[in-house]
Design brief:
This protein is globular. It is an alpha/beta fold. It starts with a helix and ends with a helix. It has 2 domains: 2-32 and 317-493, no CATH class; 47-199 and 212-296, Spore Coat Polysaccharide Biosynthesis Protein SpsA, Chain A, CATH 3.90.550. The mean pLDDT is 92. The protein has 17 helices and 7 strands. Strands 3-2-1-4-6-5-7 form a 7-stranded mixed sheet, with helices on both faces. The longest helix has 34 residues, at 2-35.
Length: 496
């Protein structure tokens, strides 16, 4: 009886937390829709007046990017901005043969008159945060644009972002990520699906009401003064971008999000690369929740609503843990439901929380149709994509939950970079990439076990109770089975 009560309490708590998160997403949808009706009247620098064009430093933090460095440097060299006011820093922590190739490429670009420097340090202390901080010491620019190695900003990118800094309270201008290999595979499609929602619904929904948003680590510009005022880059979390974003906004700096400015980038095409990226993002989110919780709550300059949205934002990754808890406990709950008739009312009440899924379905639909259009065919495609995304996202829940738990417990780990592939079309192959992990994580075995566990959950639907089974949770268990199965088998087979 005690065990049954514990299961019910934990299961109910996780469902309620997911529902609260869903309500927050619905609020962001309302914010997003209202923002579409407003015209942007922000003051801007007049670039027709050369005296109003400020100096800019572009920072390119890289580490062993053999496959994409030439593409990155060639692309950045085409950025249109007055040469006397543009500096490029290649912050290179590489330890492989890419280092020499990069040095040669930089020398070639220097001979064209481009102000580009190869910034090297003796060790990788604090990883990307340390590299950015090191470069900042000698950066000439008043504004610091940052691009990861897989990003390909358009040549007029600075002309669409820098003008917004005319407002001296603006500390960051962030742009929306695009995806050059969106249709490469199921994996890239669901990553693009999730990121599109973040870069539309969440970033616009928060920014339009003055809530905290985050610089996304790349494809954005910082005011150098803002970085220094907020305490500079710190390497004590795996998401240094989220950390500095919150510290800056707690200092009353404003962030400007530009949904209409797209910065193309490459999505991870192999599940091991996606896993390393997901682990870093989710663990970093939990680490920042630990670091920022009391700072946000005690802030005198932040409204209660912004504090609530901020804490839910920092707890984004913890939703994976709640999903895993609900999934794992749903099978014993199925048996409890059919063995204890007096609990029927409780289960009727709990069924209300299915509305969380409906809220997510509605929110993601608005984002999907913005990209793909509003048609019956598009809606059918959306249903398939939503179910696929939801299944695979749940399949990642064990992996991401481990990251979240480590983050909340304060367990430190290295910054594991996401391997880049230079994948632009379906003809390109990722096989042979030297940066891919060859070993299988123990977590993958547990994901295979969970796949079998949810197969048992589907079987249970046919045998529980004395009324010919109970199929209420069957679709949920089917999605979990497919999600964990996808992650398990892809992790076993996607090796170079």
């Amino acid at each position: 009886m005690i065990l049954k009560t514990i299961i019910i309490v934990i299961y109910s708590t996780a469902l309620i937390l997911i529902f609260m998160y869903a309500l927050a997403q619905l609020n962001l949808l309302f914010n997003y829709l209202s923002a579409q009706k407003k015209n942007d009247t922000s003051p801007k620098f007049d670039f027709s007046n050369s005296e109003e064009i400020p100096s800019v430093t572009i920072q390119l933090p890289v580490y062993n990017e053999l496959y994409v460095m030439d593409r990155l440097l060639d692309n950045i060299s085409k950025i249109e901005y007055p040469k006397g006011k543009l500096e490029i820093q290649v912050l290179d922590d590489s330890t492989d043969e890419s280092f020499q190739a990069t040095a040669k490429h930089i020398k070639r670009l220097q001979q064209t008159g481009l102000d580009i420097k190869h910034v090297v340090r003796n060790d990788r202390k604090n990883f990307k945060a340390g590299a950015l901080k090191e470069g900042l010491k000698v950066a000439k620019g008043e504004f610091i644009a940052i691009f990861d190695a897989d990003f390909l900003p358009k040549k007029d990118w600075l002309q669409h972002t820098i003008p917004f800094f005319k407002d001296e309270k603006i500390g960051v201008v962030q742009t929306r990520w695009g995806h050059i290999n969106r249709d490469y595979s199921v994996l890239t499609k669901i990553q693009a699906f999730a990121l599109d929602a973040h870069f539309s619904l969440e970033q616009v929904g928060r920014n339009s009401k003055g809530h905290f948003i985050n610089f996304n680590g790349t494809a954005g510009v910082w005011r150098k003064k803002c970085i220094l005022d907020a305490g500079n880059w710190e390497g004590d979390t795996l998401t240094e971008d989220l950390d500095l974003s919150y510290r800056a906004q707690l200092k009353n700096w404003k962030f400007k999000y530009l949904e209409d400015v797209e910065t193309p980038a490459e999505l991870p095409v192999v599940i091991s690369a996606a896993r390393s990226q997901q682990f870093r993002w989710n663990k970093g989110g939990a680490e920042n929740f630990r670091k920022m919780l009391w700072k946000v709550l005690k802030s005198q300059n932040v409204s209660t609503k912004t504090k609530v949205h901020g804490l839910l934002h920092l707890l984004n990754s913890t939703m994976f843990l709640n999903v895993l808890i609900v999934g794992v406990l749903s099978i014993p709950m199925l048996y409890i439901k059919n063995e204890y008739a007096h609990l029927k009312i409780y289960f009727y009440v709990m069924s209300f929380f299915v509305i969380s899924t409906l809220i997510f379905f509605i929110c993601y639909w608005f984002m999907f149709k913005k990209t793909y259009g509003n048609s019956i065919k598009g809606f059918v495609q959306y249903i398939v994509m939503f179910l696929t995304f939801f299944s695979i996202a749940m399949g990642f829940s064990l992996h991401n939950s481990i990251a979240v738990i480590e983050g909340h417990l304060g367990k430190r780990s290295d910054f594991i970079r996401t391997p880049k592939f230079n994948i632009n079309s379906l003809k390109d192959s990722w096989k042979g990439n030297k940066y891919l992990k060859k070993n299988i994580s123990l977590n993958v075995i547990f994901e295979g076990v969970l796949m079998l566990y949810f197969a048992f959950g589907m079987y249970s639907a046919f045998v529980v109770g004395d009324q010919g089974g109970d199929f209420g949770l069957f679709p949920f268990h089917l999605m979990l089975f497919l999600g964990f199965g996808y992650v398990f088998f892809k992790s076993l087979t996607s090796k170079a």
